[in-house]
Specification:
Blueprint (H helix, E strand, L loop, with lengths): L1 H45 L2 E8 L2 E16 L2 E4 L5 E6 L6 E2 L4 E5 L2 H30 L4 H26 L2 E3 L4 E6 L6 E2 L6 E4 L4 E7 L1 H4 L7 E6 L2 E10 L10 E6 L11 E18 L4 E3 L2 E8 L2 E13 L2 E6 L6 E5 L9 E8 L4 E2 L6
Parallel strand pairs: 1-21, 2-22
Antiparallel strand pairs: 1-20, 2-11, 2-15, 3-10, 4-6, 4-9, 5-8, 6-7, 8-10, 11-14, 12-13, 12-15, 13-14, 15-19, 16-17, 17-18, 18-19
Helix pairs in contact: 2-3
C-alpha cells in the first residue's frame, strides 16, 4: 500500500514538472517572437530612404556634327603685276583704298616705250608705202608677183611689231579688273618693278569664303550646297559648301572644302573660322545624361527606379557629347532613370522620387580632323 502512494506522488511530481516546463517554454517562445517582431519593427523604422530625381526616358533624334577650322579669304582677288621689268612712275592707291574695275593703280615709265612705238609706226608706214608702190609697178608689168608678195610680208611684219610695241605701251598703265579694296602694297615710285612680282593686291570683301581641311571619313558625307554653321567670335553664321577637292592634301591626308560665307557677315579676310558640318542623324534613340553612368572596370550601369527601390541596370553606350550619351542597350522608353542622388545608392536601396521628363534633341560639338 505504501508503494502505491509513493508511485502516485512521483507521478504527480512528474505531471507538475511537465506543466511547469510547458508553461516556461510557452512564455519563452512568446518572448522570442515578441523580440523578433520588435527587431523587425526596429529595422523597418531605421532603414534609410534616399531622395532621388528621375527622368522618364523617351526617344529623340541625335545629330552628329564635326568641327573643322580654316581662314577666311575673298572669293575674288587680283594681284597687280607687270609684264616686263620697268621703273615705277606713280602709285595711285594705298592699303585700304577702295578701287573700281578699270581704275589705273600704277603707271610705269613710258619714254623708251614711246620711242619704240614711234619707230615701229614709222617702219610700218614705210612698209605700207613700199607695198603699194610695188603693187602698182606689178600692175604695169614692171616687177614680178613674187616681189609684191615679199613687200606684203614685210608690211605685215611691221604691222605686228607696231601692235606689239603699242600693247607694251598700254601695259605701262596697270589697272584694276575687279571692285574691291587694296590689301597689300609692295612698291613705291622710283623703284624697279620686276616682271611677275606682285605690286598690289586687291580683295573683294563682299563675297567671302573659307577653305577647311576635312577628314576622309566626313568628306564622303558632305555635298556641294550642304549647309555649314560658321562660328566666329561667338557668333554663328550660315554658310554653304562651294567646292570639294577630290584630292587629299599631301602630308595631312585632309581634303580641302571651300565654304561660301554669307554676304555682309562682317568676316574679314584672314579671320580664322570654325565650320561645323552635320555628318549624320540617328532617329529615335535613347539619350541620357553622361554623368549618371556608373563605371566598374569595363562595365557601365545606371540606376533606375523600380517602385520605391533603386535597381542597378547594366547598359552599353554609343556616341556622346555635351554632357549626354546614346544608350544602345539596357534601357528603353518609359524607364524611370535616376538622375540625381544616384551616387549614394546601392542595388535595392529604398528611394523617394521626384519625376521629370527626358528626351531632348541634341547636337554634337566634337571635333575630328
Amino acid at each position: 500500500m505504501l508503494k502505491f502512494f509513493t508511485r502516485i506522488r512521483i507521478l504527480l511530481w512528474v505531471l507538475v514538472l511537465v506543466g511547469v516546463g510547458f508553461l516556461v517554454s510557452t512564455q519563452v517562445r512568446a518572448k522570442l517572437a515578441q523580440a523578433a517582431a520588435n527587431l523587425r519593427s526596429l529595422e523597418t523604422q531605421t532603414e534609410e530612404v534616399y531622395p532621388v530625381e528621375t527622368e522618364t526616358l523617351k526617344t529623340s533624334d541625335w545629330e552628329t556634327w564635326r568641327s573643322y577650322y580654316g581662314q577666311a579669304k575673298s572669293a575674288h582677288t587680283q594681284n597687280i603685276t607687270t609684264y616686263e621689268r620697268e621703273i615705277v612712275r606713280t602709285v595711285n592707291v594705298d592699303v585700304g583704298s577702295p578701287v573700281k574695275a578699270g581704275q589705273t593703280l600704277i603707271t610705269l615709265q613710258v619714254a623708251a616705250r614711246g620711242a619704240q612705238v614711234q619707230s615701229g609706226k614709222t617702219a610700218y608706214d614705210e612698209a605700207v608705202l613700199n607695198y603699194n608702190r610695188l603693187k602698182q609697178l606689178n600692175a604695169k608689168g614692171g616687177i614680178s608677183k613674187s616681189e609684191v608678195d615679199a613687200a606684203y610680208s614685210r608690211m605685215k611684219t611691221a604691222e605686228a611689231a607696231l601692235k606689239s610695241t603699242q600693247s607694251s605701251l598700254q601695259r605701262t598703265s596697270l589697272k584694276a579688273s575687279i571692285n574691291g579694296i587694296v590689301s597689300a602694297r609692295n612698291v613705291e615710285p622710283g623703284e624697279i618693278a620686276e616682271a611677275g612680282a606682285v605690286l598690289l593686291s586687291i580683295v573683294d570683301p563682299k563675297e567671302m569664303e573659307a577653305e577647311l581641311m576635312v577628314s576622309k571619313k566626313d568628306v564622303m558625307k558632305i555635298n556641294r550646297g550642304t549647309t555649314v554653321e560658321i562660328r566666329v567670335d561667338g557668333q554663328t553664321h550660315q554658310g554653304f559648301v562651294k567646292r570639294i577637292s577630290p584630292e587629299a592634301q599631301s602630308g595631312s591626308g585632309l581634303y580641302p572644302v571651300t565654304v561660301g560665307l554669307p554676304e555682309n557677315s562682317g568676316i574679314l579676310p584672314g579671320t580664322y573660322v570654325e565650320g561645323r558640318f552635320r555628318v549624320d542623324t540617328q532617329q529615335s534613340v535613347v539619350v541620357i545624361p553622361s554623368n549618371v553612368v556608373v563605371y566598374r572596370g569595363k562595365s557601365q550601369s545606371v540606376y533606375v527606379a523600380d517602385g520605391n527601390r533603386a535597381k542597378l541596370t547594366n547598359i552599353t553606350t554609343g556616341e556622346g557629347r555635351e554632357g549626354r550619351v546614346i544608350v544602345t542597350s539596357g534601357l528603353k522608353p518609359g524607364d524611370q532613370l535616376i538622375t540625381s542622388g544616384n551616387r549614394v545608392l546601392y542595388d535595392g536601396a529604398g528611394i523617394v522620387k521626384n519625376v521629370g521628363i527626358a528626351g531632348k534633341s541634341t547636337q554634337d560639338n566634337s571635333n575630328e580632323g
